[in-house]
TrEMBL record:
The lineage of its organism: Bacteria, Bacillati, Actinomycetota, Actinomycetes, Kitasatosporales. Residues 504-516 have a biased composition (Low complexity). It comes from the Bacteria. Transmembrane segments: none annotated. GO terms for molecular function: hydrolase activity. It holds the Pfam family Phosphodiest. Residues 496-518 are annotated as: Disordered. InterPro entries: Alkaline_phosphatase_core_sf, Phosphodiest/P_Trfase. This is Phosphodiesterase.
Length: 530
């Protein structure tokens, strides 16, 4: 089989082509991609979309990297896999325990494929650290400063020797300097050099890589390219910041083109995002709002209470949990916890009062309007309703469903309730998906496709099975009529209990209170996540 270069010329393959290539675009959205394709600025992505079944995806609430990619790889909604944010949202001591790969409360597609004899090449997939025992190779996505984020352990040294050095995503995040745009473009190119080396020297059946830079640039440059944005200001002459979003997508397009050169016509190619991205206008300081309503209390002091995360202090005050009934456990979680006695370390609410406090909180937020006069939340939903499944207990007690997705709820202590959003581009619930294969019917599908369904569609295309206890099913409208869809295989099922290996309780016990990783928090704070 010959493989096609982007220009249409055919060249002999230098290594066996994988059966499947999955390219993740963190924050990828057709709202940006389609206009750029129409302008001819994304030739490789445009050609791929024209050959693919494609659709807007319904992602996760919250629309966030951690639950998004976990949902994709497990074909399960958050209640089925237990990942809600970068940090544990039910840490009993209000701490900052980083979520790790073992916290995924069930098996994933990588386990299912490995059990069916497939080898895997996995690069930069969020929530994948530390690496698992899987056939093939892994370069994980650590939320900690470490050089031990690959398997085999010699992989980073091998990449460096091949002039394909790989830096972790945490090390390459935006750090508050808008000169980052050029760095982000270089990061995309560096990612592809690493993947090219691995694909040509270590062939596997399935390859997946996630490119995160479109999300990073969108968060911090969106206002330069949107004249109506409340934070808009002209870009400095010659900076290119007004075209930052198109530029980073062009860098991603070049990456897609390079990766497509490495596969043949029979390889299934999937382009997918964890969530979308759009304009971000305002931040809502939930802790200030809750304090004004008498649901949260603060006390003087620059430092959080012993063991509590850094985001529970600011402006010379900190959250006083002994007098607090409701709090937001983790920035970006779109969730609130009731400070239940016996569950939280300094709980102030009797368990029998939990539901009453939840109703009071929902009443406070249900009619809230923002500075633009728009309703902020369409609903305030108990976790039992929002996240049914075996890992509901890991979720915040209340989920805030946005009505105005240009508003970012934040944990800030002190100051005004409303302030400019620290990120001028914010996550969106709608993402994107495209799937090219000889066994897939090209075309734009009407309506939306659930993110949970995209992995089972790929597995059906590959003739591989998945467990019966996942939420996802193949998108049959995308598959050719002669594709035999394998039956679900109960032998692949494995839901980890919250108190079992890898569960939240075990992981929390292994991570003592008061051990917040300052490096990680600083990186996420510079990104505007904290």
């Amino acid at each position: 089989m010959m493989r096609s270069r982007a220009g249409g010329n055919f060249v002999p393959p230098s290594a066996p082509s994988p059966r499947a290539l999955v390219i993740g675009i963190d924050g990828g959205t057709f709202d940006v991609i389609d206009p750029l394709v129409e302008r001819g600025l994304l030739p490789h992505i445009g050609a791929l979309l024209g050959q693919s079944a494609r659709a807007v995806t319904d992602c996760t609430w919250p629309a966030h990297t951690a639950p998004g990619w976990s949902t994709f790889v497990s074909a399960s909604r958050p209640g089925g896999h237990g990942i809600y944010q970068f940090y544990d949202t039910q840490d009993p001591g209000y701490g900052a325990r980083v979520t790790r790969s073992a916290d995924l409360g069930r098996t994933s597609a990588w386990d299912w494929l490995a059990a069916q004899g497939r080898t895997l090449g996995l690069v930069n997939i969020p929530m994948s650290h530390p690496p698992a025992e899987l056939p093939g190779y892994q370069v994980t996505w650590p939320l900690e400063r470490t050089l031990r984020h690959c398997r085999p352990p010699s992989l980073l040294r091998e990449l460096a020797a091949a002039k394909a050095h790989f830096q972790s995503d945490l090390a390459t995040m935006f750090r508050g300097d808008l000169a980052y745009l050029e760095e982000a473009e270089r990061n995309v190119a560096a990612r592809v050099r690493s993947v090219r080396h691995l694909m040509t020297t270590r062939p596997t059946d399935v390859v997946m890589v996630v490119l995160t830079e479109a999300d990073r640039v969108g968060h911090h440059y969106w206002h330069f390219g949107e004249p109506d944005h409340p934070g808009h200001r002209p870009a400095p002459e010659g900076s290119g910041w007004d075209a930052a979003v198109p530029r980073i997508y062009q860098a991603v397009d070049r990456a897609v083109g390079e990766l497509l050169e490495l596969v043949d016509e029979d390889t299934s190619v999937v382009l997918v995002s964890d969530h979308g991205l759009g304009t971000g206008h305002h931040a809502l300081a939930l802790h200030t709002l809750l304090e004004e309503a008498g649901l949260l209390a603060t006390a003087p002091g620059e430092q959080p209470e012993d063991g509590a995360a850094s985001w529970f202090a600011g402006a010379g005050r900190h959250v006083d949990f002994r007098r607090t009934r409701v709090y937001m456990p983790v920035p970006g979680s779109y969730g609130l916890n009731v400070n239940v006695r016996g569950r939280q370390l300094r709980g102030s609410v009797a368990p029998r009062e939990r539901e009453r406090v939840m109703e009071e909180t929902a009443g406070l937020l249900a009619g809230l309007t923002g500075p633009d006069g728009r309703r902020v939340f369409q609903a305030v939903v108990p976790r039992e309703e929002a996240y049914p499944g075996p890992h509901c207990g890991r979720a915040p007690d209340l989920l805030l469903l946005p009505d105005d997705e240009s508003v970012l709820p934040v944990c800030d202590v002190g100051g005004e309730v409303w302030r400019p959003s620290p990120q001028t581009g914010l996550h969106r619930y709608r993402g994107m998906w495209a799937h090219r294969s000889p066994r897939v019917r090209p075309g734009r599908l009407p309506g939306t496709v659930a993110l949970t369904d995209t992995m089972p569609t790929l597995l059906a295309d590959l003739g591989a099975s998945w467990p019966p206890d996942v939420h996802g099913t193949p998108v049959q409208a995308a598959l050719a009529g002669d594709v035999d869809i394998p039956p679900a295989d109960p032998r692949l099922s494995a839901v980890r209990a919250d108190t079992g290996p890898g569960g939240a309780a075990t992981a929390a016990a292994e991570s003592p209170a008061g051990t917040e990783d300052v490096y990680t928090s600083e990186r996420l704070r510079e990104m505007g996540y904290l």
